[in-house]
Amino acid sequence: MSDRGAARTTNAATPAAPAVATTPAPAGPGPWDPRSSALLPGGPAPAAPAVPAAPVAHTGRPAAHTGRPAARRGPADPVRALLHQHRELCARAVDPLEIAAGLEAHGITDRTAARFRHRDVFSLAEELYARAPDTTAGGITEPRPREARAAEARAPWAGPSGWGRWTALALLPGAVCSLTLFGLDHSGGQRRLAIGLAGALALAGALSACLRRGPLRAEGRTRPAATVWVHGLLAYLLCGDGLLAALVSGGPDGPWPASPALLVAPAFAVLPAAWCAHLFSAGARRGLAGSRALADFAAVARPLLLTLAGLFAAALTCLYLLAAAVFGEENGGAHGALAPTPGGALAPTVTLGTLLLLARLLTVHGFPGAAATGLAAAFALEVLSCASVLAGRLPGCDALAVPVRAAAEAWGAAAVPALACGAAALGLLAHATVALSRASAHT
Asked: Least packed by Cβ within 10 Å: which of 107, 270, 376, 407?
């Protein structure tokens, strides 16, 4: 068989291969790769797409791949978590300013508010107030209208109808003190003693009534020790100067003189003190309403406090001079210690009144400890001044009495309580300018 016949025999025995469809190469700049070969019939199976390597966290362990974008750390609504943490404060707040004050008391500042996506504490407090529910005996319910919460929290003396009541009440101590002095001037013997005791009890009751109502009210915030220091300071004002003068002169050889008329000006000063406390509270809340940052409120509260303290000192000075004109020795009265002479009691009276005002303001706004400390310091200085004169009589202890004796001989016995109360008043004023310029002090 020829070669040509063998070829034909071979071709007839072998089946013809099917036609292969021509597949165009991938239209890309890259070379022909195994994925391209897989497009051809009979080619290898396509490989599974490669999974990108999981990112490695800062702990060194690979993070689990979920196929979704990584969730943002922290709660989606950070204000909601803060609302839950301070739910009682927010539910009972009368306005956003009270919430801002509470947040400040818990250490939240404008910088902290930025973490809650707010520019300052006040804007954060506004959102908390808008979202705060009401707290009832059964738990948390729907929010109450702002007017309802404000009406419940308003003090009974805050409106115009209450001004007349506590103004008349604040005049009562001065009236009682004046009537007692008139009774003492026109009586003698046992009757004089009875009038004095009755007047002292009536004055204490009138002062107590003034401190339980009106702007000077500080229910639940007073310290029992502060009452002791106040009574001690008033007692020294009544008869301390006479005792110190007798000690410096080598006595006392008998009863030292007392000056009941010195209590007239402080008794009438309850009225300007109440109005100063009211104006400070009202002005501070207006400052809170108009402030957008804690520093803005502090810039309003500090000048207001200093101004009212100065006005009170001026009012007390006028009251002292008026009492000196009425009960002074030149008008026939029996209490010449009120005479406005350089060695008179004007300085100790004014400094003591200012000290008592600052202490009451601190107590009303939640700082009774600082108030009691200032009062105790002033009383301790007055007691130590008298004790140092007595200690100077001991052998070898003459130096102890030198400072008090020099001050009393140069400026009079009234200089000692004036310096003691003045130093304590300056200390309380410095503390008050910081403490009372915080929003948390006005809730």
From this structure: 107
In degrees and rounded to multiples of 5, residue 183 shows phi and psi of -65, -40
DSSP string, 411-427: H-TTHHHHHHHHHHHHH
DSSP for residue 345: S
3-state helix, strand, coil in the chain (%, to 5): 65, 0, 30
- Cα separation, 380 vs 387, in Å, equals 10
Dihedrals phi, psi of 430, to nearest 5 degrees? -65, -40
Nearest to 341 by CA among 356, 320, 359, 358: 320
Which residues, 6+ apart, have CB-to-CB distance to 410 below 8 Å?
none
What residue has token string 């004046």?
178
Rounded-to-integer distance, Cα 162 and Cα 151, Å? 15
User: What does the alpha-carbon distance between residue 208 and residue 206 come to, in Å, rounded to a whole number?
Assistant: 5
pLDDT score of 94: 65
| 194 CB-near residues (< 8 Å, 6+ apart) | none
Which amino acid is located at 24 in the chain? P
**Are 56 and 98 within 8 A, CB to CB?**
no
Q: Is the pLDDT score of 188 beyond 80?
A: no
Query: Following DSSP, what letter does each residue of 253-299 receive, concatenated?
Result: SSPPP--GGGGHHHHHTHHHHHHHHHHHHHHHHHHHHH-SSHHHHHH
3-state DSSP call for residue 62?
Answer: strand
- Name the amino acid, one letter, at 408: A
223/161 Cα distance (integer angstroms): 30
Which H or E run includes 379? helix 368-391
Give the separation between CA 154 and CA 141, rounded to whole angstroms: 22
- DSSP 8-state symbol, 56: B
d(CA 354, CA 432): 13
Query: Is the distance from CB of 270 to CB of 174 less than 8 angstroms?
Result: yes
Torsion, Cα 134 138 139 140, to 10 degrees, reads -40
Question: What are the tens digits of pLDDT across the range 244-286?
Answer: 888 888 877 777 777 788 889 999 999 999 999 999 988 888 8
> Which run of H or of E encompasses 237?
helix 224-248
